[in-house]
Every structure is written in C-alpha cells, then in structure tokens.
C-alpha cells in the first residue's frame, strides 16, 4: 500500500504587496519538494500570486503548481476536511467552518501561526509557545528568525551551492542579464532597487551620478518608480526604459518570476530590498544589502530594524558598522543618503566579505521548512 502523505494546509491572505504570498508560496513548494508532504495553499488573491508565478490561472478555484495544490480562498467557503497540519500565515483568520472541521477531527491537527520575521530578542522566548485554543485544537506560535532557538529562515536545499555556481560563472550571469535586456558596462557596479516610496532616493541617485565609478541601477517595476521618475524628470517609465545621467545608468526591469529574482540578486554587487522575503533572499545572495523595512504603526518597525542591525553588524570594524547602520537608518527615515553612501563605499571590501560570512553563519541554522516539519514530528 502506498504510504499516506501527511497533509498540510497553508492559509494566506494577501494584505498588501507580495510578501504574504511570496513567503507562503516558497514554503509550500519546499515542503512538497523536500519533505514529501501534500500541501494545499489557500490564497485569497491570485492576481498578486500571478505576478510571482505567471503560470497561475487566476480564475481556477483549484490548480496544481509545482506539486502544490493551489486553492482559491473565496468568501463563500465550501466545506472541506481539515489537514494534519494547519498553518495560518501572519495571523490570518481561518474560515469558521474550517475551524469546526479542525475540531471535528478524531485527532486534532497541529495548528500554527507562522509569524513575521524579526531579529528581536523576545522572539526566542515566544517561538513554539502555545497560543489560543479553539475547542480541543491548540494553536502554536512559530517564529522565523536569525537566532538560535527560533524557527530559522526559508532556505531551499542546495540554494547556496546554486548561488555559488552562478556567481562563479560570468557566462551564466551574462546570459541571464542579457535575457532581461541588461548590457552591463565592464567596470560598472550593478545595483538592484526594490523598495517602497522613499524621499531619500533622489540624494542617493545624485551621489551615484556624481561618483567616479559608474553604476548601473536596475529597478523592477513597482512602488519606487515614482521617485525614480521624479528624479529623472520623466513620466510613464516602463520596463525596458534606460536613462543615463552622468555616471549613473537607470534601467527599469519587468517584475520577474520569483526564482528569476534570485538570479537578479545574485548578479548584483549590492541589493536594495524590502519587506520580508526579498530581504532574506538578498542575505542568501551573499552580497551587501540595504533593507527598506515595512512600516508599522507607532514606528515599531524601527525597533526591528535596530535589532537586526545589532545582530548583522557583529564582527564588523567600528567604522564599517557605523557606515552601514547609518545608511540603513537614513534610508528608512527617507533622509539624505549622500554621506552614508560615500562612507559605505569606503568600507566596500569589508562589507562584501562580511555579507558572505553572515550568509554562511545563517545557513548553519536549520531552515524554516525543516524546522516546521521537526516541530510537527516532536508534537505527534
Ligand atoms: O512586497 P513586500 O513589501 O511584501 C510584504 C508585504 O507588504 C506584507 O504585507 C508584509 O507583511 C511584509 O512585506 C513584511 O516585500 P517582500 O516580502 O520582499 O515580498 C516581495 C516578493 O516579491 C518576494 O517573494 C520576491 C518577489 N519578487 C519577484 O518575484 N519578482 C520581482 O521582480 C521582485 C522585485 C520581487
């Protein structure tokens, strides 16, 4: 008799942007590919999903993508059996009929809330703790994180080897970039820019334009484009547009599929990223990065930013630590970037080495999918 696979249901509400679906889609694929479980991914907004995975049929209520059963999570919920493991991503509220189905199971499922990523200390103490209970079904907190004792970070098996091979192959990089219409000048530094609207951008672009080293800036279509347009004095920038201002070439890219985005990060010397998933992927790229954190009420995101900086800058010399911390803080405050960028450039070799060291250190932790599976095995 074939072995019955453990069934997992992952619930995702797309609050805004792409991080919610970005994280859950990545997790779902990895669980299927590496842990041989059956995954249903319930998503309430297939249009956001389609941007990351153009194969998605936005009208299908049920479809299979890379071994994952994708279900449209619509308001008129149809009765369905509850799975063995249930993940509510980022505290989303499960349908009440599904909660009933969980409670009706002979053996209640393992119910977890996959929380937001944070480097703060308290995460270690809260990871894995019981949360609320619904009838006989206990919910648990599952916290991703950078520290020992957290749920770790999403990292597919073989990711760093694939990244290394790609970065060691000028031909693979050239082919990938050419496929996106990018013709990199031999001595130009390549930077990718994925960020929310930012009033600090103009000063950063001014500084790069005035630099003695040329920069080729790659900007996937998205929220920061308005600031780029203002700086260029142009309207209606579209993918494919290339504009040169002194030492700076600005090129608008299409929003690429999720696995291609990794290749973009791996190709660049420096990556500006945001939110949660691109932030983690830029760390796996092993290159220096700039994080635009997702804004939260009462500025609580600034505590998260500081917590990460404290952890990330350990092992850097004092001047390099000040340079990168100053750059990140200015970016997140929308302040002028000029002096911070110049100081960061001064410490470039150290920051490059450090990015690789940080990546390897983080890769010593169990990855998030493996940690979830282990949590389940300990629980049963
Ligand atoms: O899009 P984000 O800002 O997402 C989120 C959401 O705002 C969410 O509500 C919030 O909770 C979270 O941030 C903190 O940033 P993120 O997380 O980096 O997600 C972007 C996804 O888009 C990521 O999976 C990478 C992917 N991506 C592509 O697939 N192609 C692209 O060209 C680009 C630029 C990104």
Automatic annotation (TrEMBL):
Record's catalysed reaction(s): dTDP-beta-L-rhamnose + L-arginyl-[protein] = N(omega)-(alpha-L-rhamnosyl)-L-arginyl-[protein] + dTDP + H(+)
Cleaved signal peptide residues: none
GO molecular function: translation elongation factor activity
Keyword list, A-Z: Elongation factor, Glycosyltransferase, Protein biosynthesis, Transferase
Pfam families linked: EarP
Domain of life: Bacteria
Role description: Protein-arginine rhamnosyltransferase that catalyzes the transfer of a single rhamnose to elongation factor P (EF-P) on 'Lys-32', a modification required for EF-P-dependent rescue of polyproline stalled ribosomes.
Family that this chain belongs to: Belongs to the glycosyltransferase 104 family.
Name of the protein: Protein-arginine rhamnosyltransferase
Lineage per the UniProt record: Bacteria, Pseudomonadati, Pseudomonadota, Gammaproteobacteria, Pseudomonadales
């Amino acid at each position: 008799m074939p072995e019955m696979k453990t069934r997992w249901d992952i619930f995702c509400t797309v609050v805004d942007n792409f991080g919610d679906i970005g994280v859950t889609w990545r997790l779902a694929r990895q669980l299927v590919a590496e842990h041989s479980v059956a995954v249903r991914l319930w998503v309430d907004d297939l249009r956001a999903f389609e941007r990351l995975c153009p194969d998605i049929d936005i009208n299908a209520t049920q479809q299979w993508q890379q071994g994952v059963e994708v279900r449209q999570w619509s308001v008129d919920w149809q009765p369905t059996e509850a799975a063995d493991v249930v993940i509510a991503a980022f505290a989303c509220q499960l349908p009440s009929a599904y909660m009933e189905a969980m409670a009706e199971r002979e053996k209640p499922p393992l119910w977890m809330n996959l929380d937001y990523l944070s480097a703060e200390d308290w995460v270690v103490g809260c990871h894995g703790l019981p949360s609320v209970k619904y009838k006989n079904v206990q919910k648990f907190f599952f916290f991703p994180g950078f520290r020992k004792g957290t749920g770790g970070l999403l990292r597919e098996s073989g990711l760093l080897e694939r990244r290394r091979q790609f970065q060691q192959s000028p031909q693979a990089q050239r082919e990938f970039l050419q496929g996106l219409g990018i013709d990199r000048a031999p001595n130009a530094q390549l930077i990718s820019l994925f960020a929310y609207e930012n009033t600090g951008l103009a000063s950063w672009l001014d500084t790069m334009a005035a630099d003695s080293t040329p920069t080729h800036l790659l900007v996937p279509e998205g929220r920061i484009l308005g600031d780029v347009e203002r700086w260029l004095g142009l309207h209606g920038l579209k993918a494919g547009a290339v504009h040169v201002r002194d030492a700076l070439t600005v090129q608008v890219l299409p929003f690429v599929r999720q696995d291609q985005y990794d290749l973009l990060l791996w190709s660049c010397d420096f990556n500006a990223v945001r939110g949660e998933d691109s932030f983690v992927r830029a760390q796996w790229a092993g290159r220096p990065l700039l994080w635009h954190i997702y804004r939260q009420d009462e500025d609580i995101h600034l505590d998260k930013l500081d917590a990460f900086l404290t952890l990330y800058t350990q092992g850097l010399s004092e001047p390099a630590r000040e340079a990168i911390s100053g750059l990140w803080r200015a970016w997140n405050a929308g302040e002028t970037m000029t002096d911070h960028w110049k100081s960061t450039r001064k410490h470039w070799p150290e920051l490059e080495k450090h990015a690789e060291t940080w990546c390897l250190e983080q890769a010593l932790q169990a990855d998030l999918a493996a940690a979830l599976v282990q949590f389940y095995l300990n629980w049963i």
